[in-house]
Please model this.
Amino acid sequence: MNEHPKEEQKLDIMQILHTLLHKKKLFLKVWGITFVLSCLWIFPQPRFYTTEVSIAPESASNQGGGSLASLASSFGMNIGNGSTDAIYPQLYPDLFKSTDFLVSLFDVTIRTKDGEVNTDYYTYLKEHQKRNWLLLPLDMLMGWIKSFFTEKESPMTGKDGKRFDPFQLTKKTTDILDRLKGNVKCSYSRTTDVVTISVTDQDPLVCALMADSIKEHLQVFITDYRTKKSRVDYEHYKKLTQEAKESYDKARHEYASYADANGDVILQSVKSRVDELENEMQLRYSVYTALNNRLEEAMAKVQENTPVFTTLTNATVPIKPAGPKRVIFVAAMLFLATIGTIIHLCKKELKEWF
Model:
């Protein structure tokens, strides 16, 4: 009784193999059709390239928590690095989701490797993207249909006169922004404190140019944030120092003029007036000197708060495309077609098998 099920199971397997061997022509047809359709789909797909840039940013850390944060990071833990900074490296990937930051990349000037396109990145994404030629008729049809239901949009200009207003984008600009989000990625390693920026594009030179530009934009953004308070203080003391300097120059000129005009006068009232003007001049000089010292301190504070970014991997023009993997795609489609054909031919045996 125990051997009979095993014998039936063996006969089922042999029956499946027998069925498959007698369907060689069907397999050849399925393989041929699958191969042709896969090639027709995958080969017109535009190639894309990927460039990565790695930087190690300096974080604003408290001296007391630095060693503890370093020890925790070696175990893959994050305790904020003892940072008093609101935007520390762990938040850089979230920064790449910010509309303000991404919109600032639209004006980056790029050029393609063949030299045929030299424009800003927004125009490049809008007008110079390659598409699968099989989908062009469908895109034209969909665009023609949408034109009847959508109104023409006027570009939104920012309050500061910039080309785009992040607060209120048009639908077309939002579509381009979504495409930009798909092309640009940022990741952070907790163990090494390294930020990696990855850019994907259809042109290798554009890919490298954008990766380098995004790195520069990130550094400028973080530097502006870290030094904002110090720069405000510097401009404040610069204004006060300039006013104190003008006040001192005025008092010095008034004292010198009065002293020269009354040099031979021995009246006590004249001497008192000279002393009064001299004291006023010295007082204003003291104020000017104190403010000038504060100005120098504020300037040093700006330099102290300016972060240092160490570039570990520079942007390079990729030689080989990152995709699409055409051979792998065709092989995967042939494998799936084979599995589907086997299931279709042996569905009765497989039902009995299970």
In short: Residues 204-261 form the longest helix (58 residues).
